[in-house]
Design goal:
This protein has helices spanning 2-10, 30-36, 54-57, 63-75, 118-153, 157-168, 200-205, 218-225, 236-242; strands at residues 15-19, 25-28, 81-86, 92-101, 107-116, 175-181, 187-194. It has 246 residues and is of the alpha+beta class. α5 (118-153) packs antiparallel against α6 (157-168). The N and C termini lie far apart (81 Å).
Length: 246
Amino acid sequence: PASFLQAIVEASPDGVLAISPDRRILAVNRRFQQMWGLPDHLVAIGGESPALSREQRSLLTDPDGFEAAIRWGHEHPGEPQTLELLLTDGRIIEGYADGIVDDDGNYLGRVWYMHDATERRTGERERAALTQQVAAAERSHRFLLQAADALARTSGFAETLQALAEVAVPTLGDLCLIDIVGEKGTVARMAAVHADPELRPLAARLRAWPPDPTSNHPSIVVMRERRSRLSTEMPPDFLTATTRNA
């Protein structure tokens, strides 16, 4: 029976490790050993499971979490178990385990099936990133089409800026403010539109509060330096520096 079990285990494309309740190796295949790169003495039939060994723990980014999961499995023999293990070399190992129970319900051990999921996970991340890029390109394309349509339907300068602000939300952001510099250096706010209809009256009030042309308000800095600026956060000191009063 032992040799038959070992033959079945060796035929598996996954790394396989069968462990007894007292943490002895019942069966293990070469794929498991190759996957973990463990020395022969740690994966010998009848020997102690390598799961909690110093050598295997050193390969994991979270060895304590792995140890807790192994102990949980033996404490819950009737429960299947899945694990995702991040190795220190950057690989991702996925594992599935289930208990071995005889006809009388006696717990005989646990079998682990493991495979290297690094390539698949990398592909998934790359596809997700590509999907985000395509979605971003689609949003930009849609905005350009809407902006072109808005320009075609308007004539006056103020009307055109208002139309552009209308199509900018929510494609480019939740709130769009358009400020311009007049001939005498004064700043006028030509448009203030919010994507949320309930907040549009509040946004409209901002039309009366253009930034101080002598300040370091982002809008003023952009017009002064003639280059775009991205502010990824708006902490309290930023808001204090860019608003006129409470």
